[in-house]
Amino acid sequence: MTSQTTSSVSAPPAQEFLRLQGIHKRFAGVHALRGVDLTIHAGEIYHLLGENGCGKSTLIKIIAGAQPPSEGEIYIQGQRVAELTPLASLSLGIETVYQDLSLLPNMSVAENVALSEQLVHHQGRLARLFDRHALNQTAARALRAVNLPADADFLDTRVDELPIATRQLIAIARAIATSARMVIMDEPTTSLTQKEVDALVKVINGLRANGVAVLFVSHKLDECFAIGGQAIVFRDGEKVAQGPIQQFTKAQLGQLMTGKQLSQERYRVDAQLHKPLMEVRALGRHGAFEDVSFALRQGEILGITGLLDSGRNELALALAGVEPARAGQITLEGQPLSLRNPGDAITHGIGYVPEDRISEGLFLDKSIRDNIVTTILRKLRGKFGALDAAACQRFSTDTVRQLQIATPDVDRPVQSLSGGNQQRVLIGRWLAINPRVLILHGPTVGVDVGSKDIIYRIIQDLAQRGLGVILISDDLPELLQNCDNLLLMKRGRIVRRYAVEGLAESELFHDLVSEQSQET
Amino acid sequence: MDASTLTRQAADASADAPVQRRPSLAALLKKNPSAFTLLLIVLVVLTVALINPAFFQLAVLFDIVRACTTLGLFALGVMIVLAAGGIDVSFAAIAALTMYSITKVVMTWFPETHIAVILLAGAVGGAGLGVLNGLLVDWLKAPSLIVTIGTQYLYRGILLTFVGTVFFMNIPHAMDSFGKLALARHDTANGLHAVLPATVLVLVLASVLTWWLLNRTLMGRAVYAVGGSLAIAERLGYKLRSVHLFVFGYAGFLSGLAGIVHVSSTRLANPFDLVGSELDVIAAVVLGGARITGGHGSVVGTLLGVLLVTLINNVLILAGVPSTWQKAIIGAFIVLAGAVFALRREK
To answer: B335 exposed, middle or buried (CB, 10 Å; 0-12, 13-18, 19+)?
Structure first.
């Protein structure tokens, strides 16, 4: 605090562009940002580093005006901004490349790149003429800067017809199309080739030379070091370090991001592994993952991790029959399985708890009871094939008790529960089918610490009862605390296998973010 | 093993052959979804003409154009709402309420009102009711289908309860002469005359205006942006409320005009009229390449869709197709168009 005040009094080396003071953000049950102070200077590059769930994305959304902070003040060029809307943020010259790219799939490349300029120019007023000529000129200039073609054909192409890497470059082109003062890039390089990344680095250096501040979010530390600038490290919603990135080593940054892991209790103790349960051989789906082989024993908790583009999500969907694999074989207790749809997986006793419980899993406005019994309706049939209401009630009440779901009764809609309790309803549903294998995909995303603890205990209890559990997650402490074995995926392949007992998080983190690793 | 490989190769080889021919058609459809609509139109015209050469007459053409007018005005409004990711089913109720109320007011108090004023009143009244739809959609954050199902009952209820249920067999003088005004006249061999009504000018002007709004203003681009993704458009700084008010207000504006045109050309103000035309209109818009999920739709495509539905409704009879079959054919075309558009998306 004091250093900031003095630096703004005595002439600072670069002009202050953005200052955040005491920013808090609370979601239902989650305290995502806990009093963040941050100053961004013009013409400087910042690397926002931290594990998933540390508050980086929330911080970006606040700066971009997509979400208001719960508490705290925002200053831009020394002026307090009372309410930062998306349009206000854009008008002040803050451009964002979102992780999901935020491109409009039905519109042309030129419109996606350059329409914002006209919108901002007219301060969001829509009763204005649309200037296609200016649109094409601005778009062409920005596209050339990121080495994309700028001919009329390409400008007119609809974005949903283009491959993902091109879309990523288009999102970057949009950010630099206008006279931005600050550009935020949230993992802009995930689907880019080395050559494209090099071009991007050139773009970033050009921006810096023009006095634009760049806030860069990436898990690829090598890239961050290559670009240079300031490192800002976040952990659990707080800024834990800031300084020139060259003053840190990779190991130090890893340590700062993960924190002291010594105190973290391992949930996995006295694991009893039994006979082999599931075997996966040379599983593949073109463009998603290739040659994936592993074995899972009864009572084993197997972790699978990797960055967003590693193929871990696609593998999870293949094991659950949602997006079936095209090559390879899955056997369950020696029987070859054919998983063509989620129904096949359920029939064979493979339960899948999806990552996005809202859109993929729960019927939010239905009761807890209905959500729990939905996979076993056949079993709860009474006379004349109608549902046995008493059996439904009994079964769901038992599940609620067993999984410690905090609710007065099972009639409440699922959306009235907190994230952790929703997640437990979803797990309860899959326990209903008496699964032999349970696949948990990011089971604690958006879940508070207390609920995490309960979910981990449930997972351990399931393994104890002889289930095979596959835990797919990018939460490294979670994997280290819960798993027996761990697979690391990159570019669709398993690159390393670990026995988790005694594995240090810093080592795992290093492998996760390093560019080249070979299967060992 | 070998056999299966061979059959697979054979299958690949045979699959290659049509792929060679297909790109041209597929590319055409991709660039211009209304090409498919045009194809269906040509198909219908050729079929009818082969069976009954009497089809190729100026009189038939004039009839089709006349029949297109009201449907076309409605369809342009629905298309712009669909492009913004919503749907409007209250347009017929808006038209009925405005046309009947205005006819009654003009008949009772201002019988000498000029047609321009009447058209303006219809447009303003319709736009007002449409804006109410937009406000409800925006305030309630409710699906526009539900909101407009609600308001269409509301508007119709208001009409029948408070305005009246009696037919006006005599309509105001200005509307009557507007309906009779001819752009072109053609005397047929058998002594009848075919007339191209001036009311069609309203559709022409509305089409030009809609095209201009969609393609030459920021609002038009915002309509497609919001239709592409509401959440992303909001994040990019588009004002959702302005877009909602605009699209529903504009659809209401066109419905109000359509109501006046309808009364003028049928020379009858019937408060029970226009009910049930909703699905015909939505069918025309969807056949014209707009997607029910939003983000797509063009003026030219919509007009082609309107032409197709009108042809089926009006000229199949010339080919001896019983009128009961027209619905089945429209239905089959919609399913076919749905399949073609879905395939186009897959690629």
So the answer is: exposed
CB contact under 8 A, B228 and A126: no
Looking at the DSSP bridge assignments, the partners of residue A280 are A294, A330
Judge whether B144 lies within some domain.
Answer: yes
Residue B71 near chain A (CB below 8 Å): no
| Residue B83 belongs to domain spanning | 34-346
**CB-based burial, B79-118: b 16+ in 10 Å, e otherwise:** bbbbbbbbbbbbbbbbbbbbbbbbbbebbeeeeebebeeb
- Give me A30's structure tokens: 């989650």
The answer to whether A68 faces chain B, any CB pair under 8 Å, is no
pLDDT-derived band of residue A18, with 50, 70 and 90 as boundaries? very high
**Distance, CA of B96 to CA of B151 (rounded, Å):** 13
Q: How many domains in chain B?
A: 1
B239 touches chain A (CB under 8 A): yes
Q: Is residue B118 part of a domain?
A: yes
pLDDT-derived band at B121 (thresholds 50, 70, 90) equals very high
State whether CATH 3.60.15.10 applies to domain A15-258.
no
Residue intervals in chain A for CATH 3.40.50.300: 15-258, 261-349+435-520
Range name among A127-141, A340-354, B318-332 with the lowest pLDDT average: B318-332
> Which residues of A are less than 8 Å from B239 in CB distance?
87, 124, 126
The answer to whether the CB of B197 falls within 8 A of the CB of B262 is: no
Chain segment B214-250, per-residue pLDDT in tens: 999 999 999 999 999 998 998 888 999 999 999 999 9
The string of pLDDT tens digits covering residues A269-305 is 777 777 888 999 999 988 889 999 999 999 899 999 9
Chain B residue with the nearest C-alpha to that of A111: B221
Find the distance separating the first CA and the last CA of chain A, reported in whole Å. 48
Tally: H helices and E strands in chain B: 14, 2
Candidates 3.30.565.10, 1.10.760.10, 3.40.190.10, 3.40.50.300; CATH matching A261-349+435-520: 3.40.50.300
pLDDT tier at B30 (50, 70, 90 boundaries)?
low
Please provide the distance, in angstroms rounded to a whole number, between the alpha carbons at the two ends of chain B.
31
Q: What is the CATH number of the domain that holds B59?
A: 1.10.3470
CA separation for the pair A154, A149 (Å, rounded)? 7
ipTM (interface pTM): 0.82
Round to whole Å and give the CA distance between B2 and B142: 59
pLDDT (tens digit per residue) in B308-345: 989 888 887 777 778 788 888 888 887 887 777 766 65
Residue B13 lies in a domain: no
Domain presence at residue B11? no
Of A351, A361, A330, which is closest to residue A470 (Cα–Cα)?
A: A351
CA distance B210 to B216: 10
Instruction: Indicate yes or no: pTM above 0.90.
Output: no
Gap between the Cα atoms of B91 and B129, Å rounded: 9
Cβ pair B205, B211 in contact under 8 A:
no
Contact A116 B242 (CB under 8 A): no
User: B62 to chain A nearest CA, in Å?
Assistant: 36
